[in-house]
Specification:
Elements (H helix, E strand, L loop, with lengths): L5 H21 L8 H28 L6 E3 L3 H15 L7 H31 L6 H22 L1 H4 E4 L4 E4 L6 H21 L2 H6 L1 H14 L2 H17 L3 H23 L5 H5 L4 H12 L33 H29 L4 H18 L11 H14 E3 L5 H8 L9
Helix pairs in contact: 1-2, 1-4, 1-5, 2-4, 3-14, 4-16, 5-7, 5-9, 7-9, 7-10, 7-15, 10-11, 10-15, 14-15, 15-16
Length: 427
């Protein structure tokens, strides 16, 4: 029997898992101005990473890492499947069947990815000979994505900046990503970073200052108001969990003096308070959607990811738009009142699963990721909108509250472990 190093193998699969998530997130970016190349890259990277995580999971199982999972809070999964099922059924009445089908396939594919990714992570945590935290994998994956943008700002600012407000303001993202979406990604990464910073000590904690600097700098450059709100909420939540009173006071004082600067530079752009109050024109648009668009197809909507009979919603009182900039109104227009109540119940089931969690680290990670993607959902694509990495993150959280490792093995599973080729005795 050949020698098998479990620790070496663990480090290998951990690195692969990190790279898989990195490329999966990158697959949601517009990496080329050529639409054909962009579509090929997006499909190739997303589907390819789903295939990779399935193969990685199966390889772990072949090494003797027995996947004895137990499933709790399954209502969250059943209701999400109900949402996907309604979306699939809506192809019968969709106003653009091809587009609806494409969006549905992409969201279903990421759902499968999330299932295998969480299972692979739990196997590493159970059998790997290292201290494993999912927050570390997530944080470094996001850090590497944002590092590309931060470096790109200095190397090629014309590509990595997006001009807004009549060309007077430059925001990080360029043609590759909506600045608000990029800001949300930065906040999610910072939330995972704060967990890691709390758990690490000594030189490792000092090294973590680099990822934080990159992600926070990227957040500032996006100029995203919603993302900054998410950042502040996560800071308050995680700091309140700390038992160090001095640290709490120092951070609160620092945030108190920084709030005026944040409000002036990010929330009130160009000194235009009216823009803030109207949410950059979104409020009139939402009003028109609910009063003019929804009454046309109130029960089941216009079809999966469709908000009108034509390619965009048209109104005399607001701008034309192809998406709602609010994930809940998006569902209401896509799948009507039936779809809206389905996703509301699904979110309630997921939050219920979060409340029932007993593991502190697991529960904290849920909150750190749930807050930015939910806040983003009120102003952008969101967790039930057109394909984006916010949907992927929410799907990961669904399985995060559902799948647990079961230490009570059956006789057959114990027999499998007796033939484990590891360097240590498992049983």
């Amino acid at each position: 029997m050949r020698n098998f190093s479990n620790k070496k193998y663990t480090n290998k699969v951990l690195l692969l898992l990190l790279m898989v998530l990195f490329f999966k997130i990158l697959g949601y970016f517009t990496l080329s101005e050529n639409i054909v190349i962009t579509r090929l890259l997006k499909v190739g990277m997303r589907v390819g990473m789903t295939g990779c995580v399935i193969l990685l999971y199966r390889n772990m199982v072949s090494k003797g890492w027995v996947p004895t999972f137990q499933y709790r809070n399954m209502l969250a999964v059943f209701l999400y499947c109900g949402y996907l099922g309604l979306g699939l059924l809506s192809l019968l009445w969709s106003t653009n069947k091809g587009y609806s089908a494409l969006q549905w396939v992409m969201n279903f594919e990421s759902f499968i990815f999330a299932l295998y990714f969480i299972q692979a992570a739990l196997l590493i945590k159970k059998y790997g000979e290292i201290v494993f935290r999912f927050s570390k994998v997530f944080m470094y994956s996001v850090f590497m994505v944002l590092l590309i943008f931060v470096v790109g700002v200095f190397v090629d600012p014309d590509t990595f900046y997006r001009l807004t407000h009549g060309g007077e303001e430059a925001r990080l993202g360029g043609y590759m990503m909506n600045p608000n979406e990029l800001g949300m990604l930065a906040v999610a990464g910072i939330g995972a970073w704060m967990m890691e910073f709390r758990e690490e000590h000594g030189k490792r904690r000092l090294w973590l200052l680099l990822p934080f600097g990159v992600m926070f700098y990227a957040l500032i450059l996006t100029g995203s108001r919603s993302s900054m709100i998410g950042f502040l909420l996560i800071v308050f939540y995680l700091i309140n969990q700390s038992k160090k009173r001095g640290l709490k006071i120092a951070i609160y004082v620092g945030m108190f003096f920084s709030v005026p600067v944040i409000v002036q530079t990010i929330f009130i752009k160009q000194g235009d308070l009216q823009e803030v109050l109207s949410m950059t024109g979104r409020l009139p648009f939402w009003t028109a959607l609910l009063t003019e668009g929804l009454p046309k197809e109130p029960m089941f909507g216009f079809g999966y990811m469709r908000i009108a009979y034509g390619e965009s919603f048209q109104s005399l009182n607001t701008y034309a738009g192809k998406m709602t900039h609010n994930t809940f109104i998006q569902v209401l227009m896509n799948l009507g009142i039936v779809g809206f109540f389905t996703v509301v119940l699904q979110m309630a089931a997921t939050i219920r699963g979060f409340k029932k969690m007993k593991d502190r680290i697991r529960k904290t990670f849920f909150f750190a990721l749930f807050i930015p993607i939910t806040i983003n959902s009120f102003t952008e694509f969101g967790i039930f909108g057109e394909a984006n990495f916010g949907i992927l993150f929410y799907q990961l959280l669904i399985f995060w509250v559902v799948i647990y490792y079961n230490d009570k093995l059956s006789l057959k599973q114990r027999a499998q472990l007796r033939f484990y080729k590891g360097s240590r005795q498992v049983i």
